Amino acid sequence: MQNTSTQITGWAFIVAAALFWLSWMLLPVKIGLFFQPSDFAAVHDSFYLWIWIFRFHLFGVVLAVMAPVALGSLLIESESRVVVWPRVTMAGIGLMVGACADAFYYHFGAWGALDMNGKSAEVVAAFVASLEVSTEFITCLTRLGRVFGGFGMLVFGFGLLKWKVLPGYIGGVAVLIGLSAMALTMGLRDDLHLYTPVFHLYALWLLSTGVVTLRRACVRAECSRNSPVFVQRLHGHSKPWWFRKDHIDQEDAQDRNRNHDVHKTHQRQDTQPLGDHRYPPIAVQP
After folding, report:
1. How far apart are the C-alpha atoms of 214 and 133, rounded to whole Å?
2. Looking at residues 141-157, what average pLDDT do you find?
């Protein structure tokens, strides 16, 4: 069951990365922070394709929230849960706030494409101007989402590096994403387009985490261990869950030898005659 849970978690990260990144790259029209009069005509030209790809992107954001939650449930026995679950909470809030901001562009982009179709340039310009105040608030949500998500990734990265529940480069990239997202958003608040490299790096991080998790699940399936998936306690010490397969095979051999010795001991006891050493005499009271 635990191995199946690990596989589900790995695939959740991979599918989230695909929907999150690929759908955005395939989007026919990418609307900037503020609507432009030409955006609505471009969306109308590929209306149904645009709205469906945008929907896939929003589902990718939601799945990017769910995948770390699944990872946190696998680490419930590890001390790293003290940073994994705060990361899940904080980064999840950041992603969902960003999804709400994306939904604003999705709704008004689709509505404006239909409502402004065939209208004069003056009417379209007036419609764009009417959205300016609302868009200002949405840009604030975008900044909050990126800062919250970045802070969650920063804590998560330090936790991974501290407890080594995932390979070091996963934690290092998480720290880089967190610092970059917070620095770019708070330091260059009017240049939010500079966040694009962080977006691509985050999608790559999702994919890498999913591949690593799925690969370790395959190793666990080969070794068929009945112990926790991520942390093995051998000889009183915590071992990382990605420790080499030969270590697992060696421990399996030791377990088989111990079980064989116990079985032989029980056999000897069962074949011994019933004597006084097994059933001592009962003292009779005078």
Report:
1. 45
2. 88
